[in-house]
Amino acid sequence: MSRPAIAHIRLDAFRHNYRVAKQMHTGSALAVIKANAYGHGALQCAKAVANEADGFAVACLEEALQLRQAGIKNPILLLEGFFEAIELPEIVANDLWIVVHAEWQLNILLESKLAKPLHVWLKLDTGMHRVGFSPSDYVSAFARLNQHKNVAKIVHMSHFANADYLSSGHTKQQVAVFQQTINQLPRSQLTDADNHSLEASLANSAAILGWPQAQANWSRPGIMLYGAHPLDAHLQNQAEPKLYFKEQQMLLPVMQLTSKIISIRTINKGESIGYGSIFTAERDTRVGVVACGYADGYPRLATGENKISAPVAVDGKLTQLIGRVSMDMLFVDLTDLPTAAIGSQVELWGDQISANAVAKAAGTIAYELFCNVKRVQFCYSGG
Ligand SMILES: *Cc1c(COP(=O)(O)O)cnc(C)c1O
Question: What does the domain layout of the chain look like in residue ranges?
């Protein structure tokens, strides 16, 4: 028998979630599949929606080439554009779209000799303060790109810092800065010749789900495609309107991370388990050992030393993590699950256990959990 740690990837759920994202936001949607589709497998996810996706977004040329070389023909946007001038010929040859987020990129783009003009997403920094042109530089950056022989088309884009906090005023402010800046562009240059609409893109998943005022003709859903609701992460601390519960039920988890119980022992009250002996039994405790650890991407800090531990499901019944997560194994409490046995199926996250709940216990976000999954077998279905 091989090691039973498995990431089941349901591509039909990914396709379903893409359709939900499209329904919730007007216009077209770039499926964000950077970082190997948040750990789910970029090529498999891309193929699952290739017939219907308006395009894909990845972080860099290397990620895009992997898709092109496998025959993916949909538009692909490089979210950080290029890092060096030498990438440009390959970007042109592979028909990739680029984000231009900084003066140095703009200079290189305009000075290069290109075989064909490029489709550019010009990034405005409306308050995230990570990359993008400041509002005061944006109008001149646009003027330099607009109608330049190296530029086929310009889409205006920005990114939100706090769209997952529904009670924060920052997102509204960012939308206002975006609109004010766009309004300063010469009106005659704002309309697309074909459909007479402004080509723009603001919304990530959290904005698609929580901020209808951030709609534009392109959206960029990422985490919601994998079935983790980005607004859910802050639910318990804030009295936020629970508008999104409906959508939460509509999103289906794509990854189910499972393994099996490989050892069981009962320890007496007062005895401890695992590295650091951080769990001491307050009653006689039946302990199950699961073949999954931090080398598989399960977060080591999911056993809160002073706080709650991550939930776990054993044969469909809820229990929790105990003791410290080690590299290849972790412990679960089976005291109240007398039927659990060697070989019992354990869900670390997926259908019963949300990745958000595990992430919360570990002080992180579902994005990081997904990206970290490795070494386990990947089993795909629903493609
Ligand atoms: C990663 C990324 C997204 C997707 O964000 P989610 O929160 O996963 O929906 C959208 N836009 C940009 C610029 C990104 O870098």
Answer: 11-240, 255-381
Please say if 153 is a catalytic residue.
Answer: no
Residue with CA closest to ligand 1 atom 15: 79
For the stretch 339-373, pLDDT in tens is 999 999 999 999 999 999 999 999 999 999 999 99
What is the DSSP secondary structure assignment for residue 147, as one 8-state letter?
A: T
Whether residue 335 contacts residue 281, with contact meaning beta carbons closer than 8 Å, is answered with: no
Q: What percent of the chain has pLDDT over 90?
A: 89
CATH 1.20.140.10 is right for the domain spanning 255-381: no
Nearest residue (CA) to ligand 1, atom 4: 222
Phi-psi map region of 292: left, alpha, beta (phi>0 left; psi -120 to 50 alpha) = beta
> Is it the case that residue 261 has pLDDT exceeding 70?
yes
Catalytic residue list contains 260? no
Q: Looking at domain 11-240, what is its CATH homologous superfamily?
A: Alanine racemase (3.20.20.10)
Ligand 1 centroid to 32 CA: how many Å? 7
What mean pLDDT do residues 141-159 have? 96
Ligand 1 atom nearest to 157, measured from its CA:
13
Ligand 1, pocket residues at CB < 6 Å: 32, 34, 79, 159, 204-206, 220-223, 230
| 3-class secondary-structure state, position 3 | coil
Q: Are strands 6-10 and 200-201 parallel, antiparallel or unpaired?
A: unpaired
The whole-number pLDDT of residue 147 equals 87
pTM of the complete model beyond 0.85: yes
